[in-house]
Automatic annotation (TrEMBL):
Similarity field: Belongs to the type-I restriction system S methylase family.
Alphabetical UniProt keywords: Coiled coil, DNA-binding, Endonuclease, Hydrolase, Nuclease, Restriction system
DNA-binding as UniProt keyword: yes
Record-annotated Type I restriction modification DNA specificity domain positions: 193-354
Pfam families xref list: Methylase_S
Protein name (Swiss-Prot/TrEMBL): Restriction endonuclease subunit S
Gene3D superfamilies, alphabetized: DNA methylase specificity domains
Record InterPro entries: Restrct_endonuc_typeI_TRD, Restrct_endonuc_typeI_TRD_sf, Type-I_RS_S_subunit
Coiled-coil regions, chain positions: 337-364
Amino acid sequence: MFKAEELFQNITDRNHPDETVLTIIQGKGTLPREQAGRNIHYDDASLSNYKKVEQGDFIIHLRSFEGGLEMANEAGIVSPAYTILRCKRPHSSLFYDAYFHTDEFINHNLSKSVEGIRDGRQISYEAFKWLGIPYCEPTEQEKISTLFSAFNERIAKQRDLVESLKKYKRGVVKAIMTKQIRFVDKNGKPYPEWSACTLQDAVDFLDGQRKPLESADRAKRQGKYPYYGASGIIDSIDDYIFDEPLILLGEDGANIINRSSPLCFIATGKYWVNNHAHVMRPHKGQNIRFLRELLESLDYTRYNTGTAQPKLNQEKCRTIPLSLPIYEEQCHIADFLAALEHKCAQENEELEGILQTKNALMQQLFI
């Protein structure tokens, strides 16, 4: 173990306005500012005050207290608000890149040099330079770096696979619901054409049975039953209203516009629903899983009402036009999409397992 100032020197090399301006991407190091996908405004006249970094340097940035130090992926200049650290000894930058993102470093070591509270928090270099930092022979650092590079490559590939499967499913759902893809029965014959109707022809609305509870009431009534709102389960309480599989469709107009979370989900078992989600029971001859996929795929922006706090009210909901296949094809479609969803879940579980293994090794290695 060495004091940080024995391993790293604080670099304040300025007056390089023609160098590439770099932006910090938390957890990913640096990117040229024009590639960062952010609309960041800065005055060219101030660039001479920016600090020069070399590839492999480490940067204490404004959110380091929660995400660790970032490594410079290339040479360039960064904000003068950042602290630039350059290792004095033979080392592997990837070794320290791994260490500076561990929970052990962020929450048990770096936290000692954090000043301020909430958004005013920052890392004091005067405190940081006294922190104990591990060091081992460069040959061992290289082996450790190779291990974690392999992990990172595997994680990147698995993450790409998960995102590709999600994108593929969205495309398949769109193609099915617009009838670009059609299914055939067990004899290879096409199913009948889909029939036009409105949402109220396919479901019964049970909104009258919903009961909102204030946060204080929920806090007093903690229990085992899920409490649903517009975006899914938001709490658990000691009682339930419904005890059957039903479709819930959130009323939140902002989520309808931004699609920050799913709009439609199936609630099962015993549960409570507040007045921010429509509750629907499919009619006989309607497959609940197919209807959920169909309703999730729709564009509700035209049915939003209100401006300050837009919402999807029941009156508008009832009139939403649908095109529905017969029950047998609904089941066929639902089973097919469930298989895709299962595949997505399997690959995501694999990704989580790899991440957990990597994190567990990192924590054990540096303790």
